[in-house]
Structure formats: structure tokens, C-alpha cells
Amino acid sequence: MHLTQNQTAEADLALDRAPRTVTTLLVGKLFSRGSAEHLCRIRNISMTGMMLETHHTLGHGSWVTVELRSGDRLEGSVAWSSEGRAGVEFAQAIDVDHILAQAKASLERFCGPAPRAPRFDVECAARISCFGRYIDVTLENVSQSGARIALPKPPREDTEIILSVPGLPSRRCTTRWATEDKAGLIFLEPIAYNDLGPWLEHCNLDS
């Protein structure tokens, strides 16, 4: 089939107007009406929508918000969902280049042993190993890159410890800060998305 010059120009114009889809892997915090916070990953994004991965089941038409580590919030309704993935249509068109630039800048600001990632409030029993001693603690929040724990006498700043949480792989970490009864931890190796996501869903079911 041969196109005329006018048809070719019209096709090129339509292509220019088509939403540009960018493949990415942005980790975010998913909010859905009537449910708790969930971990998610944006696999691709355009000015009109995104495809995300989540261990939380999303129904067709559900309204969702994804908060990125940069603080940007993407809102829309679920157009389809299947086997841990969902397509979301934005309520309003977004500036994809701006979103990606903000995400990159946020990652660079918090670069180091473990980049800052979305944190999730939890409350569960855990244990740390510090200088050969085992100490029971309460895990208050967690992300792929760190956690906050509560205990009577926290280790000093920059102390290396091992954190053990039921259902998650043990993690070597260092204390980033400490107060009278709390400490912030940085994992030397981030928790894998496919380890933390299902664990958070299990916590949500138990709460």
C-alpha cells in the first residue's frame, strides 16, 4: 500500500501527537481508597497513564495514587489489571520529562550506601544482634533501604548491627541516628522488591 504525500504528512503528525511512553523502574508508595499503603513499581509511563507492578490486587475502576520518592504524586483510575500488573489512566495529563527529572534529582540527593526509598509504617517484633548480644526491638517503619526501630537503649550512631525480622531476610545495617529509645538504620544491601512487597501485604492482612 502506497501513501500519498498528504497521507504521509498526516501519519507523521499523528505519530508526533501520540503519547510518548518511557520505560522506567520507579519505586513508589501506592494508595488505594479503603486500603493501606502498598509498595509498587512503575514499569512505563506516558503523559496519559502508566503501567505499574504491585503485590496488591487492584480492581477495575479503582482510584489510585502513587507517591514517588521525589514527592510527586500520580493519580488516576485503573483501566486494567492482571497478574500483579495494572494500567492506570491519569486524571490529568502529566509532564513526563519533569517527573523523570525530579525522580533522578531525588535519587542523587540521597545517594550513598542505600538510596532513600518509600517508607511504610509497621509495628512488629524484631531482633538485632549487636556486639554478640541479641536484643528484642520493635520495628516501626521499613523501606528497601532502611528502617526505624524502638528499644530502651539504642546502639550509638554508626554502629554495625544485624536486623532480623520474621518473614524477611536478615540485614546487616548501620545506625544512622539514635535517640533515647529509637534508632534509624541503613541497610548495607537493600531488601529486594519481591521480598518486601509480599511481606508488607501480609502485614496489612494481619493488621
UniProtKB/TrEMBL annotation:
Specify the superkingdom.
Answer: Bacteria
Name any one GO molecular function: cyclic-di-GMP binding
Domain PilZ positions: 32-98, 116-188
**Pfam families recorded:** PilZ
State the InterPro entries in the record: PilZ_domain (IPR009875)
Q: What is this protein called?
A: PilZ domain-containing protein
Classification from the root reads:
Bacteria, Pseudomonadati, Pseudomonadota, Alphaproteobacteria, Sphingomonadales
